[in-house]
Amino acid sequence: MQFDNTILKHLVPIKQLQNEHQLQMARHSQMIALRAGDELFVNEEHLWFVYLIEGKLNLLETDHESVLLEDSTEQACYPLFNEGSNKIRIIAQSASIIARFDRHLFNSFVDEELTSGDELQSVEASEVEGHLFNEIMRAFNAGNLKLPSLPDIAIKVKKALSRPNSSAQDVSRIVSADPAMVTRLINIANGPLNRGVDPIGSIHGALVRLGLQNSKDLIISFSIKQLFMSKSKILNQRLQELYDSSVDVAAISFALSKQSAMLAPDHIMLAGLLHEIGVIPILSYIEDTGLVVTDENELNSIIKNLRGVVGGMVIKHWGLSNDLIAVVENFENWQRQEDGEIDTCDMIIIAQIYHRLKHQQIEGLPNINDVPAFKKLYPENQDANFAQNIFQQAHDEITAIMQLLKR
């Protein structure tokens, strides 16, 4: 059974290696055919990066509902197991093919590329930065880069909604244990963005008006603020700055989605909040291990080169939708051009550009009118001032969402 080398450019973290080393990884890989019902166990796969190539697998995790993984999805580009993962076993739901890649060989290639002065793809590494990048990559590959947990209330709501025939009553019982969350959801249901004829006075009524999937996205959005906090004063300041910028992007993207009637605004807001979620475990690892980074530019470069990969692992770890993986990996890819209608990542790219223009961070920014995502959202745009007018029209909505998220 021969491995299709064109897949390599999609596999995380193997795609970060130079082409020659990617091909060597493929030559030493193992292709394994599974029959429906065959099982894989985490303690038997710790020496390998294991990927689903064809078929469907059922991922069983401790204290979580099982998750169905299919080939040709964003999640299939990530290893099935990471050390320290909650996944205890995997069951093939159909005839499937998996590929195993040697972790030790991968780490040796990372060392070789960094110590030889060569670069990992898309990485410009100084000697110090290369050392730190290598340490963080090793921690990531070994499962020692601690990924944040989805807050408890978000886990419970997500689990409830994964069951067939789940209802607003099921979710209201969970949310009722958090009075602050109840108040926020009722306020949103009665707010100008969702107001109906009659005011809502109960959490059940709020969930019905907002819709269960929208409510889930809102609950995750409101609960993740706690992840941007640390006992370390220095780390806490940086996380607060990260949260503030994420809130700004979330508010802009929500307003653009609402204004254009494209996609689900609450989900787009969640995407905006999570687009740099990969930064949190990177900063936490540096803080916990005492790694010294004296140059702010070096730290920013390390973060930029790792946040997409790590962010994708967080989204996958939480079991959130595949479109969010595309967001964390591509939110600064200004020339991203996907076929079909506008998607979540397109909206976050546009919001990112507006955010940077708003804060005069214009270095490296393209003209927004030339960005494929913007053209897709506003295909009839002919006016040079159109982009500025759109942002001005969304001002009040952006302000309202920012106030909501910062409470």
CATH architecture of the largest domain: Orthogonal Bundle
Task: Kindly state the percentage of residues in helix.
Answer: 40-55%
The biggest beta sheet reads:
4 strands, antiparallel
Order of helices and strands: HEEEEEEEHHHHHHHHHHHHHHHH
Strand content: 5-15%
The total of beta strands comes to: 7
Strand order of the largest sheet: 2-6-4-5
Shape: globular
Show unreliable segments: 117-125
- Quaternary state of this entry equals single chain
pLDDT averaged residue by residue: 86
CATH superfamily membership of the largest domain = Hypothetical protein af1432
- Which structural class should the secondary elements be placed in? alpha+beta
CA distance, first residue to last residue = 56 Å
Supply the CATH class of the largest domain.
Answer: Mainly Alpha
The total count of helices amounts to 17
Radius of gyration from the alpha-carbon trace, in angstroms: 22 Å
